[in-house]
Amino acid sequence: MIDIHSHIIHNIDDGSRSLEESLAILKNMKKIGFDIVVATPHYIAGTSFVADNKAKSTHLKQIKDIILQEELNINLCVGNEIFIDHDIPKYLEENKIVSINKTKYILVEFPRNTQVFHLMDMLFELRDLGYVPIIAHPERYLFVQEDYLILDQLLGMGCLLQGNLTNILGKYGKSAEKAFRYMLKNHKYQFLATDVHHESDILFKHFSKVKTGIIRLIGEEEFNRLTLENPAKVLKNEPIVLTEVAPTSKKIKIWKK
Ligand SMILES: [Fe+2]
């Protein structure tokens, strides 16, 4: 498998807290079947999560060296998880942030509980500039949980959707789990990823349960597409062709009981 969303670079954001932890995370990832991992540190303008590429590459080099020493045989690529912001194009141009593996694909996150003004305008601008926004864990956002129609709008404008594997275990709460299951069943995702922050992530202990639970909903072929084939296309900067997306037929409220 290939993971396009992880926080394995130490002391950069709220992910790994040491080089030792980065190594432990990668050992765990290798054990459950990941051979390529994209490190995507948060970039949230106006907060402490704004590590520049220099700091990132210094830490990344330390991790790559230790991987070699330990003969772990896992490849690392780099990107960012970018908090939605009008200035994303500027940050990219100034090399404050990077796309995934220097491709046209960028991993973008939204605030969890608040509506973003001009969200669509910002995404359209990124599309106009030739980027393909991959929306990180849409199942976790309140405005998605309240109205699944937004998913088709995002897909329709050329964004892609990445779910977090551990949502099948309810790691982020019942509403996120419901939305995750809905999106799987209705083939809304193009990617599944770990979004791993720490070596103790429940994914490692319960991976077989995660995989079985997801395969029960989408089948093995689609599981492979979301965890291997589509991520491989991203790394090679190849286009992702959407499988037929089942239209979201009605507005479904699942946030309020
Ligand atoms: Fe993340």
Can you tell me the overall shape?
globular
Distance between the termini: 37 Å
- Following the backbone from N to C, one meets helices and strands in this order, namely EHEEHEEHEHEHHEHEHH
The largest sheet is: 6 strands, parallel
CATH topological fold name: TIM Barrel
Largest sheet strand order = 3-5-6-7-8-9
Structural class: alpha/beta
CATH superfamily: Metal-dependent hydrolases
Helix segment count?
9
Strand content: 5-15%
Mean pLDDT: 93
What's the domain count? Answer: 1
Bound ligand species: fe (ii) ion
Q: What topology does this entry show?
A:
Layout: E1 2-3, H1 19-32, E2 36-39, E3 42-43, H2 53-69, E4 75-78, E5 81-83, H3 88-93, E6 105-109, H4 119-128, E7 132-136, H5 142-146, H6 149-156, E8 160-164, H7 174-185, E9 191-193, H8 202-205, H9 207-235
Parallel strand pairs: 1-2, 2-4, 3-5, 5-6, 6-7, 7-8, 8-9
Bound molecules: fe (ii) ion.
Fe (ii) ion binds at residues 5, 7, 81, 136, 195.
